[in-house]
Automatic annotation (TrEMBL):
Protein's UniProt name: histidine kinase
MF (Gene Ontology): kinase activity
E.C. code: 2.7.13.3
Top EC class for this record: transferase
Reactions mediated catalytically: ATP + protein L-histidine = ADP + protein N-phospho-L-histidine
Transmembrane segments: 293-318
Keywords: ATP-binding, Kinase, Membrane, Nucleotide-binding, Phosphoprotein, Transferase, Transmembrane, Transmembrane helix
Gene3D superfamilies with a match to the protein in the record: Histidine kinase-like ATPase, C-terminal domain, PAS domain
Organism, as annotated: Acetobacter sacchari
Domain Histidine kinase: 388-582
Pfam families assigned to the protein according to its UniProt record, in alphabetical order: HATPase_c (PF02518), HisKA_2 (PF07568)
Superkingdom of this protein's organism: Bacteria
């Protein structure tokens, strides 16, 4: 079943089709199509340039992020290397089955070899109490005994612990010892060093040997979100708490352990480091990067300005060199269509193709004008000849009518005389018709209203004084133009019907009225000839010759393709209906 939603869909499709058709008409003009071609040719280059410029912009805007990621990766590598060295040192020391003095000598040697970097280096028992400890120095950041912690388990591990605002890297390794050949892990070696020191002492953080902390700031991020700077002497501003929460949340949601964020003034990189936690690196845009962005923006504006200027120049040139000459040629053709004279204006800027087309069209219009003049002269001669023919036909018909009238006057037999008079009236009708065609100056059409206004009195004149005294003729005809092929049978129908009414409708000196009506409704023309006499059936017994008139009327109606209707009541009424437009189309 058809639903209301289907009707809405069909209406939407029709609206879409109408919009597409209207949009297609936008490109009907040459200027619009040339503009579309120019823009279409420039668009791929513009898109490619835009993509390249956008890539450069993204590359420059993310330069600080890349520096932050480089700092994080380098810190991860350096801290991992440092923890691995410390782990190897503690595991090697713990592998020896030595007493406490010898263990301390090994630890002291390791402290000296490391450049006194450990702030806490000691042997602990299983309860976490210090058994032996290497004395720390100011260089090693002494005073970190509180982060020694209580070892758990029997495996070597590394972790980051915080104390106050500082983070420390702590490595714990068990000591192999005991008796009877069965080792028992009851003691541990612990090495603690400041996390910032572990990173910086490992070497410079960039490939050029410089310190990237000059352009970046880094913090160790504790599991609770607390930040510990990786530079004890640097007065870094802590990032907003919302930034830290956003980055940690993003790293947890994406399960990638890394996250980044660009703000108006800074860039932040968050990620794991050495498998012992995560760090947050903050970088700011360097002056050279800002300068590069400004130069890129200036370059974009310059390219855009040059592109727009070039497009405007191309459009103006195309308008002056192509569109304007074409419009001028179109205007010249319109002037030729209105005035019949083609006088092209070919400027020097007009393309040679347009000039060639203009010259060819000028020669063609010249030949056409000459041919039209010849045709007009030929038509004028033809019209003159046709008028002359109609004039001569009219004169000949009048002569024939006069001859019939003279001959009929010499006949004594009433029947023969009546036949001559009928023939005379028909010839006079044709003569009147030709005279009207000649007088009107139109050989292919006739104003039937004016013709009937003259034909009616002529028929009354032919009926005699007695008929004119008793019978009144009324003509109500509109000014309807008939083609000549329809005017002739219509005129003969009027002549026959009026003649029948005059001769047979009013016997025994009866008085009455005959009406001739011609009206038009649309393409339909209606002719009515009516009288208030004795009627067609009553008159048939008076004279059988009326049958010939009816045959002629029906024959002329068939010739016109009309419908004939004869009604009897208070007299006789002839109605003829024909379609004027259809007949014109057939004759044309």
């Amino acid at each position: 079943m058809f639903r209301a939603s289907d009707g809405k869909i069909l209406q939407m499709l029709r609206d879409l089709g109408a919009r597409l058709f209207q949009s297609r008409r936008v490109f009907d003009s040459v200027g619009a199509r040339m503009g579309g071609v120019i823009l279409g040719s420039v668009a791929p280059v513009s898109v490619l340039g835009g993509v390249l410029v956008w890539q450069d912009y993204v590359h420059l805007s993310e330069a600080s992020l890349r520096r932050g990621e480089a700092v994080r990766l380098t810190a991860d590598r350096r801290l991992r290397h440092d923890i691995d060295r410390t782990t190897a040192m503690l595991e090697t020391t713990g592998e020896f089955d030595a007493d406490g003095d010898r263990t301390m000598r090994f630890l002291s040697l390791a402290q000296s070899a490391s450049g006194m970097k450990y702030c806490f280096l000691a042997e602990l028992d299983q309860a976490g109490s210090v058994v032996n400890q290497v004395t720390s120095t100011a260089a090693s950041g002494g005073g970190c005994e509180g982060v020694g912690g209580r070892p758990t388990g029997d495996k070597t591990f590394a972790e980051v612990v915080t104390s106050g605002k500082r983070a420390y890297a702590r490595v714990v390794a068990p000591i192999a010892g005991g008796g009877g050949g069965f080792p028992t892990r009851v003691r541990f070696l612990v090495a603690v060093e400041p996390l910032d020191q572990a990173v910086s002492l490992a070497g410079p953080l960039d490939s050029t040997g410089g310190d990237v902390f000059a352009d970046a700031a880094a913090w160790y991020v504790a599991p609770g979100g607390e930040l510990s700077p990786l530079c004890a002497q640097c007065a870094w501003s802590r990032p907003p708490a919302g930034v830290v929460a956003s980055l940690t949340s993003e790293a947890q949601e994406t399960k990638s352990e890394t996250a980044s964020l660009i703000t108006t003034y800074s860039s932040y990189t968050y990620g794991p480091v050495a498998g012992v936690g995560a760090i947050l690196v903050a970088t700011t845009r360097l002056p050279r990067e800002t300068h590069s962005l400004w130069m890129l923006g200036l370059w974009i504006l310059t390219i855009f300005g040059l592109l727009v200027t070039g497009l405007i120049g191309v459009m103006v040139a195309a308008h002056r060199l192509v569109v304007s000459p074409l419009r001028q040629l179109t205007q010249d053709v319109k002037m030729w269509d209105q005035s019949g004279r083609f006088e092209p204006v070919n400027a020097r800027s007009t393309p040679v193709e347009f000039r060639t087309l203009s010259n060819v069209f000028r020669r063609a219009t010249g030949r056409l004008a000459r041919r039209e003049a010849e045709l007009e002269r030929s038509i004028a001669r033809q019209n003159l000849l046709i008028r002359e023919i109609h004039h001569r036909v009219k004169n000949n018909l009048q002569i024939v009518a006069s001859l019939l009238n003279l001959q009929g006057a010499r006949i004594r037999a009433a029947d023969m005389k009546e036949e001559f008079m009928l023939a005379r009236d028909r010839v006079r009708t044709l003569a009147t018709l030709h005279r009207h065609l000649y007088v009107e100056g139109e050989v292919e059409s006739l104003n039937m209203g004016r013709f009937l206004a003259e034909l009616g009195p002529q028929l009354m004149e032919a009926a005699g004084e007695e008929a004119r005294a008793l019978i009144t003729l009324q003509v109500e005809a509109s000014d309807i133009v008939f083609p000549s092929n329809l005017a002739t049978p219509m005129a003969l129908i009027v002549s026959e019907t009026v003649s029948n009414s005059l001769k047979y409708a009013f016997p025994d000196l009866r008085s009455g009225t005959i009406l001739i009506s011609l009206t038009q409704t649309g393409d339909e023309v209606i002719l009515v000839v009516a009288d208030d006499g004795i009627g067609l059936s009553a008159s048939q017994g008076i004279n059988d010759r009326e049958g010939i008139g009816l045959q002629l009327i029906r024959g002329f109606a068939r010739q016109m393709g009309a419908v004939l209707q004869i009604d009897e009541g208070a007299g006789t009424r002839y109605t003829v209906r024909t379609t004027l437009g259809a007949r014109r189309a057939e004759t044309g």
